[in-house]
């Protein structure tokens, strides 16, 4: 992922808070040294994170974030690894963005009875067309999310996000699900 939730796209290792500048003068963050980043020789690399990360990176990120909220749960990690493998194998086009895979994984684990509320704290919905940030607006009981880059003049991107996640989920797990089940993703 990129932005606030960015991590190393190869290994899932955290990035430093402070920025460094690469040879072209672009601001980057540094991949911190942990077991995974050292093993993959990625520690110390400059990155801003990625829209699409590796399966291993997503899994390591999942486990690391989970351990910040709960006790280690190896049965959950095995289930998450299996689900991630199916999601990554199935995802096409924008479905394979980390943000969509993360929400589909969340739904899969919730359906199996796991507490996955904590997963919200580590992801931010993005425009499903251009990956820009979203600006939320509330009218009465309705919340809409507009692409800050003004994608196609569409007033709301939440429906398209739900449809993207639902399409991925349906094919990955050979089941059918209504996009409305992803009202909160
Ligand atoms: Zn957009």
Structure overview:
This protein has two domains: 50 residues, no CATH class; 99 residues. The strands form two sheets. The chain has a three-stranded antiparallel sheet with strand order 1-2-3, with no helix packed on it. A two-stranded antiparallel ribbon has the order 4-5. The protein contains five helices and five strands, in the order ββαβαααββα. The chain is an alpha+beta fold. The mean pLDDT is 94. It binds zinc ion. Zinc ion binds next to loops.
Mean pLDDT: 94
- Strand segment tally: 5
Secondary-structure element series? EEHEHHHEEH
What is the straight-line distance between the termini? 17 Å
What characteristic shape results from the CA principal axes?
Answer: globular
- Derived structural class: alpha+beta
Assembly state (oligomeric): single chain
Give a list of the ligands.
Answer: zinc ion
Quick one: biggest sheet?
A: 3 strands, antiparallel
For the largest beta sheet, what order do the strands appear in spatially? 1-2-3
**Low-pLDDT residue intervals, each spanning 5 or more residues:** none
* Strand residue content: 5-15%
What is the helix tally? 5
Helix content: 25-40%
Q: What Rg do the Cα atoms give?
A: 17 Å
**Number of domain modules:** 2
């Amino acid at each position: 992922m990129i932005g606030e939730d960015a991590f190393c796209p190869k290994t899932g290792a955290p990035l430093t808070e402070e920025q460094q500048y690469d040879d072209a003068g672009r601001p980057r963050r540094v991949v911190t040294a942990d077991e995974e980043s050292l093993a993959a020789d990625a520690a110390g690399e400059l990155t801003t994170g990625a829209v699409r990360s590796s399966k291993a990176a997503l899994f390591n990120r999942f486990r690391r974030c989970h351990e910040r909220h709960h006790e280690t749960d190896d049965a959950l990690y095995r289930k998450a690894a299996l689900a991630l493998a199916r999601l990554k194998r199935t995802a096409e086009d924008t479905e394979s963005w980390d943000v969509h895979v993360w929400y589909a994984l969340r739904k899969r684990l919730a359906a199996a009875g796991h507490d996955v509320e904590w997963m919200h704290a580590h992801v931010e919905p993005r425009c499903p067309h251009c990956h820009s940030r979203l600006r939320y607006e509330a009218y009465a009981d309705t919340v809409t999310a507009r692409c800050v880059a003004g994608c196609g003049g569409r007033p709301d991107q939440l429906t398209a996000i739900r449809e993207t996640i639902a399409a991925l989920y349906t094919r990955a797990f050979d089941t059918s699900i209504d996009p409305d089940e992803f009202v909160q993703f």
